[in-house]
Design brief:
Strand content: 5-15%
Distance between the termini: 19 Å
Number of helices: 6
Oligomer: single chain
Shape: rod-shaped
Order of helices and strands: EHEHHHHEHE
Largest sheet: 4 strands, antiparallel
Strand order of the largest sheet: 2-3-1-4
Radius of gyration: 25 Å
Structural class: alpha+beta
């Protein structure tokens, strides 16, 4: 059955995290890959069931730190050697031991900022609108006591009838079509 235009996906509401994990495992076994779990607190089993393992924040932090140390050394070299050279006590103009502490500070600054901004960018934040905000049961329970599994319509395996049948076999509290 072809995908309906204007639908984001099907949202199933569960009362316990165990039901959510069981439904997520079954959806993955059935071939669904474009899905997301929404819980009021971290549920490690849900992340495992989603096969979530990509975390690029450490790489972004490392690249930011390397950019910081490189920027600091290049800036200090430029200032000490070419822009404003000072001959103090017969020392060489490129006296790299004096550059270590400021370069360390720039490394920490760039790594911290790139970690914070990189995490926000990789999470897609700020996101002022999401189609799930239109689902009434999601607004009332997602941050308090309900657990949700959303199977997205962009999944090649998605079919309204088959997907609804798959979700309803786990006896969710509700299954709702989420409009775009």
């Amino acid at each position: 059955m072809p995908r309906r235009e204007g639908i984001y996906g099907l949202l199933a509401e569960f009362n316990t995290p165990g039901e959510l994990v069981q439904a997520t495992e079954a959806a993955h076994a059935a071939g669904y890959r474009r899905m997301e779990c929404y819980t009021p607190y971290p549920v490690e089993e849900a992340a495992v069931a989603l096969r979530f393992h990509k975390n690029r924040v450490p790489l972004v932090t490392l690249l930011g730190g390397l950019m910081g140390v490189t920027t600091a050394f290049l800036m200090e070299t430029w200032i000490a050697v070419w822009s404003y050279p000072l001959n103090i006590g017969g020392r060489p103009l490129f006296s790299w031991p004096a550059f270590i502490i400021p370069a360390y500070e720039w490394t920490i600054l760039f790594a911290g900022l790139s970690a914070a901004f990189g995490m926000c960018a990789l999470n897609g934040l700020p996101q002022l609108y999401h189609p799930l905000f239109n689902a009434p049961n999601f607004r009332q329970g997602a941050t308090t006591d309900k657990f949700f599994l959303c199977l997205e319509a962009t999944d090649p395996r998605f079919s309204i009838m088959e997907t609804r049948a798959l979700l309803e076999q786990f006896s969710p509290a509700s299954v709702v079509e989420v409009e775009l």
